[in-house]
Amino acid sequence: MGVSHYRERGLQVIVAGGGRVGRETAALMTAYGHQVTIIEQDPRIARAHAD
């Protein structure tokens, strides 16, 4: 099952990890129209990328 499986719009997605791969995955899922929450345990990463 590839990423194309997730192209149905409106899913709620949780991405575990705020590193490079997690952020890229979150961006892709957002582009597909999903609501994305990133879970990250390292506060340094969370602070560096907070809006």
What does it look like?
There is one protein chain. The chain is α+β, with helices and mostly antiparallel strands. It has one domain. 35% of the residues lie in helices and 20% in strands. The protein has 2 helices and 2 strands; from the N terminus they run E-H-E-H. It has helices at residues 20-31, 43-48; strands spanning 12-16, 35-39. The protein has a two-stranded parallel ribbon. The longest helix is centred in the middle third of the chain and has 12 residues, at 20-31. The radius of gyration is 11 Å and the shape is elongated. The mean pLDDT is 83.
Mean pLDDT: 83
- How many discrete structural domains? 1
User: Helical proportion?
Assistant: 25-40%
Class from secondary-structure proportions: alpha+beta
Helical run tally: 2
Secondary structure layout:
Blueprint: E1 12-16, H1 20-31, E2 35-39, H2 43-48
Parallel strand pairs: 1-2
Which features does this protein show?
51 residues, two-stranded parallel ribbon, alpha+beta, single chain, elongated, 2 strands, 2 helices
Short description:
With 51 residues, the protein is α+β, with helices and mostly antiparallel strands.
